[in-house]
Amino acid sequence: MNNTENKSNKNQTALVLEGGALRGLYTAGVLDVFMENNIKADAIFGVSAGALFGINYKSKQIGRALRYNLKYAHDKRYMGMYSLFTTGNIMNREFCFNKLVYELDPLDFETYNNSNISFYAVVTNVETGQAEYIEIKDAKKDMEYLRASGSMPFVSKLVEINGKKYLDGAVADPIPFKKVLDMGYERIIVVQTRPSDYSKTKSKMPFQLIYRKYPAFIKTAKTNYIKYNETLDLIKEYENNGKIIALRPSKKIKMKRVEKNLSKLQAIYDLGVKDCRENLQKIKEYLTQNIISPL
């Protein structure tokens, strides 16, 4: 894991990308508009789907996230109950992180690895219950961290890397805005996947039944809603004071976490495109400023 604390990020722009399973196609729409309009960032902090779809910004592959999700939504090898029952992971490891990225719709590893954008995937350390922010410098070598970031509890096996056990980064830090503030980035764009009136309620999932060996993880998971809602309040405070840009769905599109309806997948992506285009001038003006300072 690379140290994220000692870098000087003065005059730099960071993107913060929330997860949300296939709601993350909203983020994919936003990022495609960014690429089409040469909106540049120096760093990306992606959580779960925010990381898995956000890599396409660094590899400069407009439309890739939408394309493969539409093409393989109904392929039992991709993600869903068949994969869960046969492999223990709702996202099929072999298909999603091998066949797809190398053969069917390849990630441009060369462009990704040669980019000077710093890319961090947020993961949750199951044993400590804490978030870790892993810099993905080499997408091939670090693919397991990306998989860990999107490995949702209950429907994913623990991902073990270098002796550490990980699950979905959204458990410990669902929107790493505070982390990015602490690292000193002067311009921050947050892309959320829930409308502005959303707030999270306490989970009723039986974490203690499945994760009883990991009490720190259980505590983190059960208090996740508190951190999430506090982060929403902090984002709105900075946004209202003109310190950051926050993009979020302008309307609610009801989606399952593993959505198979192609019209809904297209709709949430199109909404990201629409909302971003409507705010494009505001974003461009914001990026000419160095304005982050304590409120």
Layout: helices, strands, pairs:
Blueprint lengths: L12 E5 L7 H12 L6 E5 L1 H10 L5 H9 L8 H7 L5 H12 L4 H6 L3 E8 L5 E5 L7 H7 L9 E3 L2 E5 L8 H6 L4 E5 L15 H4 L4 H8 L1 H17 L4 E3 L14 H17 L1 H7 L9
Parallel strand pairs: 1-2, 1-7, 2-3, 7-8
Antiparallel strand pairs: 3-4, 3-6, 5-6
What does this structure look like?
With 295 residues, the chain is of the alpha/beta class. Helix content is 41%, strand content 13%. The protein has 13 helices and 8 strands. Strands 1, 2, 3, 4, 5, 6, 7 and 8 form an 8-stranded mixed sheet that branches. Strand 1 (13-17), helix 1 and strand 2 (43-47) form a beta-alpha-beta unit.
Low-confidence stretches: none
Strand content: 5-15%
Q: How much helicity do the residues have?
A: 40-55%
Largest sheet: 8 strands, mixed
Q: What is the structural class?
A: alpha/beta
In total, the number of strands is 8
Topology pattern, helix = H, strand = E: EHEHHHHHEEHEEHEHHHEHH
What's the helix count?
A: 13
Integer-rounded radius of gyration: 18 Å
C-alpha geometry:
globular
Q: How far is it from the N-terminal to the C-terminal residue, by CA?
A: 31 Å
